[in-house]
Amino acid sequence: MHGSAPATRPGLIVAVLAAGGIVATLMQTLVVPLIGELPQLLHTSAVNASWVVTATLLAGSAAISAIGRLSDLHGNRRLLLTCTGALLVGSVICALAGSLVPLVIGRALQGVGLGVVPVGISALRELVPPQRLGSAIALVSSSLGIGGALGLPFSALMAQHFGWHTLFWTAAGLSAAVGALIWLAVPVTPARSQGHFDAAGGIGIGIGLICLLLGVSKGADWGWASGTTLGLFAASLVTFTVWGWWELRITDPLVNLRVAARRQVLMTNLASAVLGFALYASQLILPQLLQLSRSTGYGLGQSMLATGLWMAPSGLLMLLVSPVGARLSASRGPKITLIAGSLIIAVGYGSSMVLLGTTWGLLIVSCVCMVGVAFAYGAMPALIMGAVPPSETGSATSFNTLSRSIGITMAAAVVGLVLSQLTTQLGTRSVPSESGFRLGLLIGCAVALAAAAVALAIPSRRAAAHVGALEPSASANVVPSVDMVT
User: Fold this and answer.
1) CB of 486 within 8 A of CB of 262?
2) Could you give the maximum distance between any two Cα atoms of the chain, in Å?
3) Coil, helix or strand for 179?
4) Which H, E and C letters describe 14-43, residue by residue?
5) Which residues contact 394 (CB under 8 A, 6 or more apart)?
6) Which pLDDT tens digit goes with each residue over 170-182?
7) Kind of pairing, strands 423-426 and 429-432?
8) What is the pTM of this model?
């Protein structure tokens, strides 16, 4: 229900939640400039050092569904502060770390902090007037891409000029600032749902996701046919089977699978996974092309800092165009916006076939892709929130964010495999070939077109699809019927 406070300062609330999303997402790319140096910095092997990246992904994916459900049961503000607290504590642990284990622990806590994004999106349903809800959702959802784009130049600048410990101390300061802003600006809202937290379901989905994502992310290192990789996939399948049986059996499930199976929710989550793949493919390929030596004939010879600066405008552009996507959703429905965003991403990838030769060309490719991402990422939470009862908003938006994370992991595996197989020699080392980069970009184009095809299967329900069509306070106790949401 709307209170007096949010009615007088919705703009401030949206700005604070968007800032929280940007800071939380920035943590995902925070260590990218350090990857090559981590083995020396931590006195460990390159394989062990890779856990600094993997831990963030696994912890965030495992925790995000539980965070969403807890926000439904205990209120958004409490979980927002919990997530920013995890970001703060994790950053401090990393800043104090001098070896691998504490750094991995800190990075895992930073991954848990990514829950700020879905919880912030679900909070908007209670805190923002209906006429501003669409644009608010688009902005906060787009923070997932904005933080990722801005993280690379920020971390490269900090690591290059101030050292890696200062990088994490700065991250701690940003996390503390966001937590303070949430405490001061975001009002307390009542719990949307009653019941008990499904601890068994939280453990089950966590184990299943860790086995799945660990197998996908480490399969190339361990061997796709190795006993470890196949065992993890088998364990994931068994765990998810038991977990699904349990979730359908209990009264207060962590994830309401009956709601998740409704066509609008199911197709939107599938599109989210596909678009997560499409987004991350460009973030894997374009920075490598920019940094690769010019002696290859196709690399552009940029430093890590210069690469980050070339990628940064795409993140700022997302910030500018997200309101445009919101207006399109308001006039034509979020389904149309999702389709349009997917097609724009496909155009961006397609244009790369003629723009790979210059830094300005790759800047254009990056910007076009990110415009599409801004449209698509703003539309997906609106579709989800228009199809689930208010009592399950946090859980549903968190599951949607999880779908994107799964797509991102799949992109890392598939594109990484392509680039590792199609190589050329640069002195004594192998580097991805131009044909490998081009194939990876074409895969991104095909995946974006697939996302548009999936979006076409989403039911067209103009009146209910626009999330702002219902006054949240009036609908707080209304559970949509099957006909209404399918």
Assistant:
1) yes
2) 67
3) helix
4) HHHHHHHHHHHHHHHHCCHHHCCCHHHHHC
5) 67, 68, 69, 70, 71, 72, 76, 79, 118, 119, 122, 192
6) 999 999 999 999 9
7) antiparallel
8) 0.83
